[in-house]
Design brief:
The chain is an alpha+beta fold and 433 residues long. The protein has a domain of 180 residues: 3-Layer(bba) Sandwich (FAD/NAD(P)-binding domain). The longest helix has 21 residues. Helix content is 32%, strand content 24%. The strands form five sheets. Strands 1, 2, 8, 9, 10, 11, 21 and 22 form an eight-stranded mixed sheet that branches. An eight-stranded mixed sheet has the order 5-6-4-14-15-16-13-19. A two-stranded antiparallel ribbon has the order 3-7. Helix 2 runs parallel beside helix 7, helix 2 packs parallel to helix 10 and helix 4 crosses helix 10.
């Protein structure tokens, strides 16, 4: 068995990100124009835009900057929405929002990389392209249809196979794939810290260890309380995604929390890693339980997939990731996976990001369905635009009512069994011949 380290939750990003400062807990009573709950990509992007517009904004987080999924993600910056082709988007949204959201999602990676360049954020950004490799003839047929539909919007996707695919990817486990040139990668914790520094330099206040205990509207304003302080503001932005609690009682019931997991090596010798993703592409596959991987500038490998959270809260699945990494990249069969970590992301029933305004002055945006690095940036910008006066009908996301996900409890309870079944189906489809 490929050796794994014993530290179950040691994200690589903590060791490779530029140092970030701790943000003090909120203390005392404060007045702001906007309170942002959540110091991940969504909340920090909103805070940056609001502060730059001269708005008084206070950001609160139960942990600190990048504590949740933003600092635990695999760091791939993939454009386009998962699962939904343009034709399905049209059926879900109608012609107006379909056009907006298709263009917005297609440009989401470009938007993030432009933001990083504008604010000179030191997060190892590289936009070298994303390879989605296809595990079965059925997946290839579906990918070709999706590629044709997205290319009509200017995606520039290209089918690759045979020797070309093997050279780009470093694996012969897949016979065909789709190259999306706009994809890329970042060091995600460094990105979160960079966004925080940019927001603070423009006047935003950020407080860590400041879990919100109550949220209520009275006397025409919103009142937010933590254990040691309070903020009164005209607007509140809830940007907690997979870590959403009961501040808006119906909100957590609208998403399915799932647990991606990652493993990473120390820098590897050139003879081990030289043939893997030599052009700096990111990679993922088309299985029901996907893998995703990337090669770091310092020669280490990161490999991710779906973890399983037990009743005791512990996350499993890391040994499966190590075995799968050796299947995809035999070059990695004997490496030591020093790091392992996980986070929580949010899936929605229609696989679309959801933007809600359940009461005047209260916004919530969540549900990136595995595209959070790029789409969280978009959502933060859009919510800031709304606060700054944009009419709802001009936004790329429709304002939607909060709806409970059907059979949510059963889905959560049955997730472990479902993962086993889906892995079996994947294995049957990917076996030789």
């Amino acid at each position: 068995m490929t050796p794994l380290a014993h530290d179950v939750q040691h994200p690589l990003w903590r060791d490779t990100a530029p140092a970030g400062e701790d943000h003090p807990p909120l203390s005392g009573d404060h007045r702001a124009d906007v309170t942002v709950i959540g110091a991940g990509f969504t909340g920090l992007r909103a805070a940056l835009m609001l502060a730059e517009a001269g708005t008084r904004v206070i950001v609160l987080d139960a942990g600190d900057v990048g504590y949740g999924a933003s600092g635990r993600t695999g760091g791939q910056v993939n454009p386009m929405l998962p699962f939904n082709t343009p034709n399905r988007l049209r059926a879900l949204l109608g012609p107006v929002y379909f056009e907006r959201l298709a263009q917005t999602s297609l440009g989401s990676a470009d938007e993030l990389f432009a933001l990083i360049e504008r604010y000179r954020i030191d997060c190892q950004p590289r936009q070298n392209g994303w390879l989605r490799v296809l595990h079965s003839p059925r997946a290839l047929k579906e990918a070709r249809a999706g590629m044709a539909a997205w290319n009509a919007f200017g995606a520039g996707m290209e089918e690759v196979d045979g020797a070309t695919l093997a050279k780009l990817s470093g694996t012969t486990a897949y016979r065909a794939g789709v190259l999306t040139p706009r994809g890329g990668a970042v060091q995600p914790l460094a990105l979160a810290r960079g966004l925080a520094e940019a927001a603070k330099s423009r006047g935003a206040a950020i407080h860590g260890q400041s879990a919100v205990t109550t949220l209520e509207r009275r006397d025409g304003a919103w009142h937010v309380r933590t254990a040691r302080g309070a903020v009164t503001s005209d607007w509140v932005i809830v940007a907690t995604n997979g870590y959403t609690g009961g501040l808006i009682p119906t909100l957590p019931r609208s998403i399915l929390p799932v647990t991606p997991a990652q493993i990473a090596t120390d820098p590897l010798p050139d003879e081990v890693i030289s043939s893997i993703l030599p052009g700096g592409h990111t990679i993922s596959d088309s299985r029901r339980i996907i893998m995703y991987a990337r090669r770091e500038p310092d020669g280490r490998m990161i490999f991710g997939g779906l973890g399983q959270r037990g009743r005791d809260g512990r996350v499993g699945g890391f040994d499966w990731l190590a075995r799968d990494a050796a299947r995809v990249f035999p070059q990695l069969a004997q490496v030591r996976w020093r790091y392992r970590w996980s986070g929580v992301i949010a899936l929605t029933d229609d696989h679309l990001p959801h933007l809600h305004e359940p009461e005047p002055g209260l916004l919530a945006g969540l549900g990136y369905n595995g595209r959070g690095v790029a789409m969280a940036n978009v959502m933060g910008r859009v919510m800031a635009e709304r606060v700054l006066g944009a009419a709802p009908e001009t936004l790329p996301f429709p304002l939607s009512p909060i709806r409970a996900m059907p059979l949510r409890g059963a889905r959560i309870a049955g997730m472990g069994s479902a993962i086993k079944v889906l892995r079996l189906l994947d294995r049957l489809e990917t076996r030789p011949g």
